[in-house]
Each structure stands twice: as C-alpha cells, then as structure tokens.
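Q: I have 501 residues here and want to know how they pack in 3D. Can you give me a structure?
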Amino acid sequence: MRTSDEPSLERRVAQALRDDAMRAAVRAAQERFRSGKRAAEVELGDWEAWRALGEAIRRRTIENLDLYLTELADRVEAAGGHVFFAETAAEAVRYIVDVARSRGVRRAVKSKSMVSEEIALNRALEAAGVEVLETDLGEYIIQLAGEAPSHIIAPAIHKNRREIAALFSRAAGTELSDEPEALVRFARERLREAFMTAELGITGVNFAVAESGTLVLVTNEGNARMTTALPRIHIAVMGAERVVPTWEELAVLLTLLPRSATGQKITSYVTALTGPRRPGESDGPEEFHLVVVDNGRLDLLGTPYQAALHCIRCGACLNICPVYRQIGGHAYGSVYSGPIGKVISPLLGGDAWAELPHASSLCGACTDACPVRIPLHELLIEHRTDQAAAGRRPAAERLLFRLYGALVTRPALYRRAIRLARFCLRPLADREGWIRRAIGPLAGWTKMRDFPLPARRPFLDRWAAERKRRGRISPAPRRERRKGTPAGRPPANGGTEGGGR
C-alpha cells in the first residue's frame, strides 16, 4: 500500500520525464512488443474473431466465478492439495508465513507473481526470517535494485544492460561484462544453488483450470518449473479471477496471451501442475497449497468495473499506451501500471490511487489492443465520473466548473465573458494568437500545450448572423400560460403551450 510520505503522481511523473535512459529503454521495448503483436495477429488471421471469443470466455467465467472457484477448490483438494481463500492481503500473507514457519522454512525461491507483489509477500517472509530469492530474471534484477516491477510481463523493462551489469557486478563482488551471455551465466549460477537448497517454492498462477484443478504457468525461462519441482513445498498465489472453466477454453486464452504480450505463438514453457507429487513420481513438491486472493476483486462483481476482472495480464495495453511510453511503470506508484493499473489500482487499493485515472489521454488505444476487449478507456471515464459525483475533486476545480456552468447556461452572460476573456488574455498571446507560456490558474494547461486566444468574434455571434442572413430567424414566439395551467406543464389538450413550433 502507498504511504502518506510517498511523492505525488505529479512529482513521480516529473522524475520519470528526467530519466532519459529509462524512457529510451521503455520506448525500444514497446516498439518491439507492438511490432511482434501486429505480426502475430496477421499470421493467426481473423484477430477480431479471436478477441470476441476470448471476451466471451472471460465474461462467462466471471459471471459464474463462484461456481468455478468452488469446482477448482474441490479438484485441487481431491488431488491432495490444500486451498485457502484469503479475503484480504493480510489474510493471504498470514497463511503463507504460518506455513513457512510451521515447516521450518529458511529459504524460499519465487517465480514471477504480480499478486505476491500486490500483497507485499516478500517483505513479510523476510520479516519472519525466511530468505526469499526471485528466480525470474527480470524479477531478480529489480530485487537486486530494490525496486518494484515496472511492467506486467517485463518487470525490468526500464533497465538497460549496462545498468543490469552494474547490479550483477555488485552482487558478484567483481566486475562483470555487460554482454547478455555473461549476465545470464552469473544469474544461472546464483539461482541454481538456490533451487537446490530452498525448502519452499512460491509461484503465481496464469490460469487455473477448474475442471481438473490444474495450475498453468506461462514463462520464457523455465525457472518456474524448477521452483515447483525442487523444493519440498509449493505455494501458488492467484487472484480469484484467474480461473478458467475447461482445457478447451484455456487453449483459446493461451492462443491470445503470448501473441498479445510479446508476439510469440507460444511461450517457451507452459507448465501444467495438478497437486503434489504422487507415489512413483520423480519430482514435484511433497506438499502443495493454493492461496486464492480476493483483496477487493469480488467487490467488483455486478458493478460497472466487472470487466476489469477479464484481464489476462498480457501487458498489451501498456505496450500501446502513449502515457506509459513517456513515464514508464514506476511513475504510477502502484504494482499494476499502465491502463489496466489505472483501472484496478483504485479499486483494489482505494483512495491512495484515486489520481491514476486522470493520468490518461483517453485515446482508446488500450481498448483496441486488449485481446479480451476490456473497455479500458470507458472504465477510466467511469472512475472520473464516480469521483466527481462523490465530490472528491479539488475545491478549486469544483468552483471552476460551477462558474463555467453558470456561464454556459446564460447566453448573454457567456458572450460578455468571452469578449472580456479575449481582452484580458490578448497581452499574453503571440502574433499568431496563441498563449504559449504558463500563466496563473491556466499554468497546468499552458505549460504542456498551447492555448488559443478567444476569437475576436465569438461563434455564437457568427452563428446568429449566418442564420439571419439565410432568413431562418423569426421573432421569438410569445409564451402564454393558459389560465389555471401550472407553469412548465403542457395544456390539457396536449398541444404545445404558446403555439411554439
């Protein structure tokens, strides 16, 4: 959760805009992911039909979420696993820490899991005396840097290889080359030793198949498989919405996910796990726990935000977003960045993230990119509408819009105000009629874009003159009220009061 002493969104954005290396890295990654996605869409064919199918699967699943979660829990337990439903982040953390303590766990290895970041699991385990090592290469990099993920699928997208080499060199205690082969070799040596000594493996869940109780992990490195196969205990942490009813529907989502994320037909490793190790099997955990995290998700059911639960965490909306392109992921402040982060962070984290829905151009590119057709820009508008209706906008902004409403509902006053505005602003405009410098209460607008000087002849005056020229203006009808008829109510015969057209 965000603390009160963290910088505001405006300050985080300003800091991000000064980080040229981060912006270059994000821009290059975005372009690579986007071009790969476009090529994959063309190769697959009829992409919109696939999107419609994915949307239908996710909608039906979320509409019957209780049914499928119950079926999933029954199947997992039948296969020898344990299932815990955590209503809050604190409940999820407490359960996992209790399991680790009771089994004498001293070291844990983790595969990439956004939900574990959401509930701050690493911090709690370390406070309990458990050493935690991230095994996904991107997560390992940001763990060494002491940072949070900046992208849903590529947590270290903001780092270039020179920065990564500096982090690895510090961990190694010697200077390492920034060649990718040398960096991967160092990470492999460190991680393999951890795999062999860890008592606990922790993973996320890309999808959980309700009909069989199977967890599906989608990775490009294979470390998730080692995290689940070598330690004697495996704990999987999943958001309550990650369930899918059947293998047939899973196949559709696995067609959409890698193509939308990186442009791959399929990721390097798709791992399916059903329960703990059985008699006669050579690997796998002796003990398996599935922790299903609610943490506000179920509160979205039946609300205008329910579609946000359809997300398959591909990152396509981040890869197309012009705002993310400029500021990266850390400027959002939340674990979840980009358009989907701006939608779900205020819903899961409350008022701490109320400013995020306003960090958007509302261009709609995210909605077009989403493989399951979540109307992301419409949900951002919904957030803004809710905040305005609740009176949660700054007092100055509320006063400004009240004054604006008073003006635009009084045409004569509005015309006079427009003329006065031109008179007052004219000294600040250049010869072309544009205000290009930050000024007073308009500074928030003019420091980022040019402001046009109001026209010498307002549109309302031009429109009235044009209608008059074409002979379309007739004397305004005199409004009469029939005796005994209340004002504002049509006469009893259903005619138009006063004979108006």
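Q: Anything worth noting?
A: The longest helix spans residues 20-44. Residues 481-501 have pLDDT under 50 and may be disordered.
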